Amino acid sequence: MERPAWAPQGIDISVPSVSRMYDFYLGGSHNFEVDREAARKAMEFMPGLPKIMQANRAFMRRAVRFALDEGVTQFLDIGSGIPTFGNVHEVAQALDPQAKVAYVDHDPVAVAHSQAVLEGNDRAVIAAADLRRPEEIRDHPDVSKLLDLDRPVALLLVAVLHFIEDADDPQAAVAALRDILAPGSLLVVTHASYEGVPVTREEAGGAVGVYKDIRNPLVMRSRDQVGRFFDGYEMVEPGLVPMPLWRPEVSGAQENEDPYAFAGFAGVGRKA
Amino acid sequence: MSIPAQASGAPDAEPDGPEDRLRRFATIWSRAIFPSTATSMTRPEFEQHLLPLARALSDTLHARPFDPASAGAVGTALVAAHCTDPDALSSTLGVVDSYLVLYCGSNGPVALSTEDSRSRSARIQHAVAGGFSQALRERTLAEQEAIARSALSARSHAEQALHATEARFRAVFKDAAIGIGIADLDGNLLEINDTLTRMFGGLENHVLSHRLNEWVHPEDTPQVWKYYNELVRGEREHYRVEKPYYRNDGTVLWTNLTVSLLRDSDGRPEYQLALMEDTTERRLLNLRLRYEATHDALTGLPNRTLFLERLEKALAAGDGSRFGLCYLDLDGFKAINDSLGHASGDRLLVEVADRLQSCATAPGEMVARLGGDEFVALTTGPDTAAEVDELACRLLGVLAAPVRLDGRELTVRGSIGVVEGPAGERSAAEVLRSADITMYRAKSAGGNRFELADAEADARAITRHGLTTALPAALERGEFFIEYQPLVHLDDGSVHGAEALVRWCHPQHGVLGPDRFIALAEHTGLIVPLGRWVLEESVRQANFWQERHTDGGPLRINVNLSPAQLHHPRLVAETVDVLERSGLEAGALCLEVTESALIGADEDLLKPLRQLADMGVDIALDDFGTGYSNLANLRRLPVSVLKLDRSFTQGMQHHPADPVDLKIVEGIVSLAHSLDLAVTVEGVETRAQAEQLRQLGCDTAQGWYYARPGAPDRIHSLLLADAV
């Protein structure tokens, strides 16, 4: 008898995973040939893709430091992927050993890998859940056990919202998460966009096509569209900007940045 | 490449001193490899990170003895700082080759020769490359192993979950209380569960060897196969029907069948899923309940419910249809039941039912038991006019042979009312009532026969029935009134008293005489309250006359007593009560009792009459001469008046009178007088009659010759006339 339709999908590592492609862009080896093949194909259209990922990691590190400076010591990182290096718990717990980090991902391999990495760390957990069903995240016992939702939380949606199609209503998911967070919570977002990409739209579209082919469509959104995810939040200075321009730690550093780093948008909002 | 003038950093660095030169080397190195690193450190941080590595290289350059292996750690450290890109290594080697000796060559305690420097630099580069490669290889292997292990663990996790789901599904499939089968679109069954196999009789092969579309059953609803074909063509997602199947032993399995179409991930029809609930038992139970609800438990014949259904159907049938109905009631069944007991009575009914059932042989004929000893036989079709007579004859015929019961032979007879007619004219209730009435007519005619319904007889009976049911309300509403007919002394023509005669002023039928309703009132028991009202009313009236007419001697009032009143235990008490309350003396009251009511009367029945007579109330024997006139019995009856029936006086209406009649009346009068009884005659209509009866010695008379019954004030005026 064949597998009934309601049984869970098995793990098919012959299909590329965006988490493992991300790891490959960052020079990691937590990937398989299918992942590398897809990543190389995307890089044929946008050779500087790794720089975008690097800029993402750098922005995230600055945002985590900012949150700790603001007194927010709880982190909810959704779409955390394969933690190659510079992960939220590494950055946060290096500065404040009491910081708590809940990772969420729906890729079972990423979840298994995170479990291995986080073993022995009682202030960091990984929960298997999907951003498209925020109630799964809210009700996940590991999340609710670690995080005190009555106190402010930094919600990180870094390089994840652009993997959710409009049909799945990411706006509603983000709003639902906002509603479970306490006032003073922070929303940290980066999002892919055709704006700021140092190549033609056709070339960028080629890379987008690769993600479509591996059934993980990349949804490029405009600055306005990304800004709408911050409904109910007050934007923190300098607002929604290209990643290198968000609170650089070294003045003038952006002049030395790779042009690819300016693709897409980053921003942080504070819930009133 | 330009040489940076000053690296940012420690303030203690003496310009162009060894420390400053080391920092400048680190700055050059950082600029060279930063673009190819994946670190998330900022440039200053990264440069700071490289500084100790630069110092290690410088120290190695000057170390004595020279040991290049320690430079391997620098390559390892680069990998640890995520400088894993091959460009990072080649850039690093280029920077060491070009700048290490230049910036750090003079930092050591002993100056190195140029050749020594170049040789040491080259060997340092070899060591850095070796360390980097070693570290990168280890890191790559470790990460590959980690991700492979993660993939494996995720997969086994998913498989466990899948396995658990499948195990649950298996359990549901296997242990479900309903039958489940999965078939392809050609109807081949791919898998069935045990319940389904059991439902079909227990042989799996029996089920699997047939395709779904081969399970045809004569009782299939027409839609079943239409739905089936729509489903396998993908035009229907599911259907639900009640469907019978043959089990492997040939018996029938009834199911509630639900079939759903299963599609593949692209939406193409793939399988059909059948869920079957065994409803055989429930269906049998329903049939049995239906049977029990429509059949008589004792005889197994259809009961009233089923009979009425059939009758209504027959009456609702279209043009030209007729129906014939025989309504049969056993004659004297109550007596059999009372004498032999109910158990024997029941056995008799069963035997009768069997015999009657055997009469209904043609299609459209049925025999049913309505209850008790009432049976009906129905025939339908175009020729019921002839058939129903034959049916009635057959019914009486099968009862002709005696029934053997407990060693006795019992003769059972029945009376049948037959109604026949076209469909669509009368309701079932009307037909049944007509049949019932007609049956009673057959019974009154002596039983063991059938009578045909006719509208007039029905109408009479229906009126009778209507009057019976209207009686109690009529008494409450005061629809009864009393007329008085004078009793006259034959010798002088003076008014002796009056007989009270009750009338019913019926709202539809007008004024009705006692012959129309007294028997009904007697039958229902209403005669008791009605009789009491008549007594009260007439005694009150008599008292009224008494008071107004004190000089004309005592005026008597005659009131009729029915047999039921005679048996009523409070007759004496109530009569006394009525007299006392009105103030009328007992001697002014005469109660008339029919001769037939006293036939065979025992002392218990006579006792109240005797008590009344002792009090002074006259008792008249009414209709004397019509019954079995037991003259010898007259002596012991407490009567003081004989009222001769009008049949004796009819022969005297004309002159000359019938001599036999004269002799009889003369004899009776003589007998009566010798027993101290007064004689009253009724029905006096002519002067000749009156004269004749006076000569024969009769005491008093009443009849149209004197006055018809009338309102009380007419008696009053007669009395006044009398007195003049």
Automatic annotation (TrEMBL), chain A:
<keyword id="KW-0489">Methyltransferase</keyword>
<keyword id="KW-0808">Transferase</keyword>
<dbReference type="GO" id="GO:0008168">
    <property type="term" value="F:methyltransferase activity"/>
</dbReference>
<protein>
    <submittedName>
        <fullName>SAM-dependent methyltransferase</fullName>
        <ecNumber>2.1.1.-</ecNumber>
    </submittedName>
</protein>
<dbReference type="InterPro" id="IPR006764">
    <property type="entry name" value="SAM_dep_MeTrfase_SAV2177_type"/>
</dbReference>
<dbReference type="GO" id="GO:0032259">
    <property type="term" value="P:methylation"/>
</dbReference>
<dbReference type="Pfam" id="PF04672">
    <property type="entry name" value="Methyltransf_19"/>
</dbReference>
Automatic annotation (TrEMBL), chain B:
<dbReference type="InterPro" id="IPR001633">
    <property type="entry name" value="EAL_dom"/>
</dbReference>
<dbReference type="InterPro" id="IPR000700">
    <property type="entry name" value="PAS-assoc_C"/>
</dbReference>
<dbReference type="Pfam" id="PF00563">
    <property type="entry name" value="EAL"/>
</dbReference>
<dbReference type="InterPro" id="IPR000160">
    <property type="entry name" value="GGDEF_dom"/>
</dbReference>
<dbReference type="InterPro" id="IPR052155">
    <property type="entry name" value="Biofilm_reg_signaling"/>
</dbReference>
<feature type="domain" description="EAL">
    <location>
        <begin position="464"/>
        <end position="723"/>
    </location>
</feature>
<dbReference type="InterPro" id="IPR000014">
    <property type="entry name" value="PAS"/>
</dbReference>
<dbReference type="InterPro" id="IPR013656">
    <property type="entry name" value="PAS_4"/>
</dbReference>
<feature type="domain" description="GGDEF">
    <location>
        <begin position="321"/>
        <end position="455"/>
    </location>
</feature>
<dbReference type="Pfam" id="PF08448">
    <property type="entry name" value="PAS_4"/>
</dbReference>
<dbReference type="Pfam" id="PF00990">
    <property type="entry name" value="GGDEF"/>
</dbReference>
<feature type="domain" description="PAS">
    <location>
        <begin position="165"/>
        <end position="235"/>
    </location>
</feature>
<feature type="domain" description="PAC">
    <location>
        <begin position="239"/>
        <end position="291"/>
    </location>
</feature>
<protein>
    <submittedName>
        <fullName>EAL domain-containing protein</fullName>
    </submittedName>
</protein>
<dbReference type="InterPro" id="IPR001610">
    <property type="entry name" value="PAC"/>
</dbReference>
